[in-house]
Design goal:
By secondary structure, the protein is an alpha+beta fold. The chain is built from twelve helices and seven strands. A five-stranded mixed sheet has the order 2-4-5-7-6. A hairpin with a 2-residue loop joins β4 and β5. The chain is elongated and about 135 Å long. About 25% of the residues are buried. The protein binds adenosine-5'-diphosphate. The site of adenosine-5'-diphosphate has 20 residues, from α11 and α12.
Length: about 450
């Protein structure tokens, strides 16, 4: 097996120009076909060579045997000698095929394999040479056949003419070969032209796609910069609104009636939520700018720290968080921490009224990536919302029931996609949800 592979590689190296199949188009495939022809021809030609040579020596037709062997060694040299140019190798190959046909025809006559070799030479030439020569090979066959006809007519090859009707027989048999050769010359190139057009079209579509992709990338960058600038610059006025509203409330407390105080409360609350959204939007736009370097992240410790940070919420909800054997991984620490933080707080937040949250964090090692799962026994999600919840500002609940901005999962998705991973949810309403994400191994 190994030997066959090495043999094929060697012939390909010797008979196939180095190039990019995508950019060289049909000419690459024609060269490839030539290399593959040589690969298969060498071992298979032994099937015809051994009996041919054996028979020729048996019949004392040594010239035929020697000729067969010469052709075989010439083809062998095409495959194994490197420095000869590929175009020259192709010409040698086709000359070998045609001369084999002529020689066999001359030696054995119409009943031998000469005509088959001439036809094979035509097909090989059509496959491995440029299409502009497509009729040349049929014309060469026509010439060879005509010369043989003349030899028979003028009785110059007596061994071919022992039959009194040999010229008629010659014309009948060979006219069929000429007919098939011309038909092949006309039809086979059509296949190549069709293929070439398809390849060209594909390349054109690919080029258009690349341009569109580049434009989208640039637009995306513009949009991200815009989001960043806006969310960054809006922070200050929002902070001013809420602090002056608070001052207003403090200073004019005694002049305000209950309604006035309520209006100020709503305004402060609105400003607070807007600030929260702007901060998250800033986080969202920072992900693409994030140039954090890879470092060893102890996930077990990371989760532990998140639990400590959320201890108050955990105590209030009597939540149980189970996790073990979370491995250290190479990753960007800040975004990964953000990810776990978002998913764990969501699992705590979207709990059933009547049940305390039970959250299970687990790890599976997969080929090429790490896979983490955060499973809860919360309210669950209907399958029709599985995609929607990862879109910016998409929420399934009113803020009076569950607080939030609808950005947490969009941020998680962006973090994961930036590092080449995937995130998805599996959930059954009223039973619970499992958020699964993968991180490629660094
Ligand atoms: P937020 O929590 O701020 O609303 P997210 O992007 O984190 O925003 O979540 C989007 C929506 O997905 C939430 O409004 C909620 O309906 C749903 N969701 C997220 N996590 C869970 C969960 N663990 N269980 C049930 N629903 C969830």
């Amino acid at each position: 097996m190994r030997l066959i592979k090495a043999y094929k590689n060697l012939i390909r190296k010797n008979c196939l120009p180095q190039g990019d199949p995508e950019s060289s188009g049909i000419s690459y495939w024609s060269d490839k076909l030539f290399a593959e022809t040589i690969i298969y021809l060498l071992p298979f030609s032994i099937i015809a060579l051994i009996p041919g040579v054996y028979l020729s020596f048996l019949m004392h037709n040594y010239i035929l045997g020697i000729f067969d062997l010469t052709i075989f060694f010439l083809i062998l040299s095409i495959g194994f000698v490197r420095p000869i140019k590929i175009q020259i190798k192709k010409v040698i190959f086709i000359i070998c095929m045609f001369s084999l046909g002529i020689f066999l025809l001359y030696q054995i006559g119409i009943g031998g394999p000469g005509l088959i070799y001439l036809y094979a030479a035509n097909i090989f030439a059509l496959l491995i040479f440029p299409l502009r020569f497509k009729y040349l090979w049929s014309i060469i066959i026509l010439l060879i056949i005509s010369i043989f006809g003349l030899l028979i007519y003028y009785d110059l090859a007596p061994h071919l003419t022992d039959n009194p009707n040999s010229l008629n027989e010659w014309i009948v048999v060979t006219s069929n070969l000429i007919f098939i050769s011309f038909i092949s010359s006309a039809l086979i190139p059509k296949l190549f032209i069709g293929l070439e057009n398809t390849i060209l079209k594909k390349e054109q579509i690919q080029a258009e796609l690349n341009i569109a992709l580049q434009k989208t990338k640039e637009k995306n960058e513009d949009l991200e910069n815009f989001t960043y600038v806006i969310s960054h610059d809006l922070q200050e006025p929002i902070r001013m609104i809420s602090s002056f509203l608070t001052l207003l409330e403090k200073k004019y407390d005694k002049f305000l009636d209950e309604k006035g105080k309520q209006y100020i409360f709503y305004a402060v609350d609105g400003a607070k939520r807007m600030r929260e959204m702007i901060l998250q939007l800033l986080d969202f736009s920072r992900i693409s700018r994030n140039e954090n370097s890879l470092e060893m992240c102890d996930i077990q410790k990371m989760v532990n720290d998140i639990i400590v940070d959320n201890q108050k919420l955990i105590d209030n909800t009597h939540a149980i968080i189970k996790y073990s054997k979370l491995p250290p991984i190479m990753a960007q620490k800040t975004p990964i921490q953000h990810l776990f933080q978002n998913l764990i707080t969501n699992a705590l937040k979207y709990k059933k009224d009547e049940e305390s949250p039970i959250i299970q964090i687990s790890y599976k090692e997969k080929k090429g990536f790490h896979q983490f799962e955060i499973k809860d026994n919360g309210i669950g999600i209907e399958s029709k919302h599985f995609e929607k919840i990862f879109v910016l500002f998409q929420r399934l609940h009113d803020k009076s029931k569950y607080e939030g901005t609808g950005m947490g999962l969009a941020i998680c998705k962006k973090i994961i996609e930036k590092i080449g991973g995937k995130i998805w949810v599996e959930s059954i309403p009223k039973i619970g949800s499992t958020f699964i994400f993968t991180i490629p191994k660094a």
